Amino acid sequence: MLPEFMRKKSANDRPVHGRDVKSACGRPPGAVAGVWRWGLAALGLALAALLFLPPAPDAAAPHPVASPTPAPATATAPSPRTTAASAPAPREADVAGREITVRRGDSLALIFRRAGLSAQQVHEVMHLAPATRRLRDLRPGDRLTLAVDAQNRLRALEYRRSPTRRLVVRRGDDGLSARVIDREPQVRTAYAGAVIEDSLFVAGQRAGLPDSLIMELAHIFGWDIDFALDIRPGDRFTVLYERRYLDGRALDDGEILAAEFVNRGRTYRALRYTDPRGRTDYYTPDGHSMRKAFIRTPVAFTRISSRFSLHRRHPILHRSRRHVGVDYAAPVGTPVRAAGDGRVVFVGRKGGYGRTVILDHGRGYTTLYAHLSRYARGLRRGGRVRQSRVIGYVGRSGLATGPHLHYEFRIHGVHRDPLRVHLPDAQPIAARYRPAFRRAVRPLLAQLDVLSRHQLALSD
């Protein structure tokens, strides 16, 4: 059974900070006098400190952060699970009226008709402002609030487009007016961690991470760790991430701010940072990009059906021949992504490869993707693609016994094993941004240190 990442507090647990203070009530008179004397002495010391000690730094001063999000909590202890940011702004009062849930086949005209409102008022609302045009695309389950006066005139309408955005139409002395009201959620820093027993996905769910953050964690470390082949029982991870709250209730999860992954005893760390140009990426503590110029595996596969080999018996031709790539078995239609930035030099059928795409990445690097079922829309020879862009879909075209992607990696025309070839790094942080980067990630590293030690102690 996995140890809990953070021990739950019991009623007998003492707080991390502060001390228990006993009351002087019920003591003998001498004891009470002693308490007064000590109290007066403490008051004198406090006044001296106020007069002679330098002022504390401004608590409202901004703390350096690794992204344009609020800074995470200071790394004094791994409790509580979340740390509060600034208090939410006061909200405008909701529209008081009849709440309506949009049904299948509903439109604003049908809803107004059922409420006794005329078609002229529908036209007036629809053409009131650009924001009200969104009312043409109502979906089942959407909620509207209508307020109607005694003359069957629309007094107010509220449409909640999302938990943080609503459209409000009100009638005033000058007629109807519309405005969009946005609410800024409260952002806190949360953390999670686990020791892997079976898979990253199961361990992430056990730690309380949503699927989206588990996938993002795999994406961040995916250039260094093959999560299909390299994961071992006993590997562990720690994640600091954003969680957004509205009215004190969890709304959704935001970006991963920092993460640590220990794989086979080797520790990898990633820190989110936005440079002065507004470019956001994940970096190692010394400023190197977590990204590589190429991703290791360009498809979400179920298994490797055939590896790189200079002597392999072909399953269809039944004779020995070189297999200069890796075959990733996956269902038909699974997206295939560009391993790196590059230019499309071939799109079409290529003998036994079937439907094939070849990319030229410059500096002598090329990659090939074969046995596709179809190509991505808009892909054409001479076009440029970015890393991870979908370029096609898994199939079984050409000489293939089942659906899979055949992937080849070449350097100056020489085939290399895609699973073992050394991948060049992406560009590190520019030298002129290094000092700001170090200041920004210092609190994140401090928190990772505390949480990692705590998790390691629990797992021993």
Report how far the terminal alpha carbons are from each other: 13 Å
Tell me the helix content: 10-25%
Major beta-sheet overview: 10 strands, antiparallel
- What coarse outline follows from CA principal-axis ratios? globular
Q: What is the N-to-C succession of helices and strands?
A: HEEHHEEEEEHHEEEEEEEEEEEEEEEEH
Mean pLDDT: 79
Strand fraction equals 25-35%
Low-confidence stretches: 1-90
CATH class of the largest domain: Alpha Beta
The structure class reads: alpha+beta
Explain what this protein looks like in three dimensions.
This protein is of the alpha+beta class and 460 residues long. 18% of the residues lie in helices and 33% in strands. The protein contains six helices and 23 strands. The protein has helices spanning 29-52, 108-114, 119-126, 200-206, 211-221, 434-459; strands at 82-83, 98-101, 143-148, 154-162, 165-172, 175-182, 186-195, 236-246, 249-263, 266-274, 280-283, 303-306, 309-313, 320-323, 326-329, 335-337, 342-349, 355-362, 365-375, 384-385, 390-394, 404-411, 414-416. Strands 12, 15, 16, 17, 18, 19, 20, 21, 22 and 23 form a ten-stranded antiparallel beta sheet that branches. The protein has a six-stranded antiparallel beta sheet with strand order 1-7-8-9-10-11. The radius of gyration is 30 Å and the shape is globular. The two termini are 13 Å apart.
